[in-house]
């Protein structure tokens, strides 16, 4: 598949939502979106207290929504996507210190 461990985790979240909401999304676009999500996470998580700062969390949420839209990811419950991706990002950053 050619993606990193973190990208694969984001891929799995996005793929799971495809199944849950019963829509098709091309595999190559899913991989591309997963890589873009990792770039977004890395840019927001560069601050030590990023996961506790409301301004950073808000910027991350807006950035994620824009990414989903830019990549043509179908309209699903955006808060659910944000919550799942954010929790995964927190796990990675917590365990990679």
Automatic annotation (TrEMBL):
The residue ranges of the Type I restriction enzyme HindI endonuclease subunit-like C-terminal domain are 1-94
> Which Pfam families does the UniProt record give?
T1RH-like_C
- Can you tell which superkingdom this protein's organism belongs to? Bacteria
User: What's the protein here called?
Assistant: DUF3387 domain-containing protein
Origin species = Mangrovimonas cancribranchiae
């Amino acid at each position: 598949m050619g993606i990193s461990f973190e990208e694969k985790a984001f891929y799995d979240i996005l793929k799971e939502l495809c199944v849950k909401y019963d829509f098709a999304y091309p595999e190559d676009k899913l991989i591309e979106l997963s890589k873009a999500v990792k770039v977004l996470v890395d840019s927001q998580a560069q601050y030590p207290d990023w996961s506790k700062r409301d301004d950073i969390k808000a910027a991350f949420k807006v950035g994620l929504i824009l990414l989903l839209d830019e990549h043509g990811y179908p309209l699903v419950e955006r808060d659910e996507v944000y919550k799942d991706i954010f929790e995964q990002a927190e796990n990675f950053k917590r365990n990679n210190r």
